Protein: Cyanovirin-N domain-containing protein
Organism: Exidia glandulosa HHB12029
Amino acid sequence: MLFTFVFAVASVLTPAVLAAGDFRDFKYTCILHDGVFSAPRTANMSCKGNDGEYRDTNLDLDRCVTNDNAKLTCAPQIDQGGYAGSCTECTMSHTWTGDGAPGTLCCKCPSLDGTQTTKSCIDLNLCIGNDDGKLNC
């Protein structure tokens, strides 16, 4: 399963006015490499550091997002994610789409009892951010 990003250069390069050390909204300060996720859930990006320079960074989104009974949610703690083991057909948009705002991850996720599968979306900006050029949960 490959995750795809649809990037709007204008939204990615929008300047953010933030103090040094702020945990920043990744959608305004990071650029995705090659337009796809790899492995299949790793975001490979270049993110702007506090000094204005871009740094290569990656993040396994499975560390930050979980499937909570057919609903994607931010993991309660780092490394308590696990959506990728149960959710399928995941996509992510970095532009306004029918699936939501920029930075929205959508997947089909099963309920705990497995009787239903529901399309669920989450704004990844609630779960991940750019910390001085490094993606973090």
About this structure: Residues 1-21 have pLDDT under 50 and may be disordered.
